Amino acid sequence: MSARELGDTGPANPYGIVAIAASAGGITALSRVLGSLPAGFPVPVVVVQHLDRRHETVIASVLGRRTTLPVVLASADEQAGPGTIYVAPPNYHLLVGAGGTLTLSSSELVHFVRPSADLLFESVAGAYGAAALACVLTGSGQDGAMGVNAVKSRGGTVIVEDPKSAEFKGMPEAAVATGSVDFVLPLDEIGSVITGLVMGRMS
After folding, report:
1. What b/e readout covers 65-80, taking b as 16+ CB neighbours within 10 angstroms?
2. Residue-by-residue pLDDT tens, the chain, 203 positions
3. Angle, alpha carbons 39-42-46 (nearest 5°)
4. Which of 61, 84, 110, 145 could be cross-linked to 116 through a Cys-Cys bond (beta carbons 3.0 to 4.6 Å apart)?
């Protein structure tokens, strides 16, 4: 079974999953990107947002008020479905396996954070190959850069928020520095480009 078959994709829908990562400033950035995705979005969206692991989070309800798509905290062994946004719970790495099965892990911190964008992106690259679309938004630090390389090495597509427009430039700059990025875009253009790519409206 090919990577594209895993995601149940076809010529008009070449992607099987969208993975988005953010850190500092991320709630605002995620709200704007996710809020521009249309109803009926045909693939799952998995999200890592660095959160204070000492507290419960209301991120799913906050983001859910800003998008027409359902937003849930990811659960272990859940099957990711199209048109749903799955957010990593605080203090758990979120991984995606073959066929879109979600896994939560409390393994060691990566770049001092858990959840880790790198681990999410690497798992998506392994499960979906060329059918993976990864996006790095605002944030401090370098989380996501290694994962960007993994996505690109498997033929996937990488979008990064333009560091010039990012509230915090660390994560976008680290991703761009890998040389593995397909699009560097202002925040307000990212959602429409993701939609165009996933729904087959862009070459």
Report:
1. ebbebebebbeeebeb
2. 333 334 444 445 689 999 999 999 999 999 999 999 999 999 999 999 987 666 567 888 889 888 999 999 999 999 999 999 999 998 889 999 988 999 998 767 766 677 899 999 999 999 999 999 999 999 999 999 999 999 999 999 999 999 999 999 999 999 999 999 999 999 999 999 999 999 986 54
3. 95
4. 110
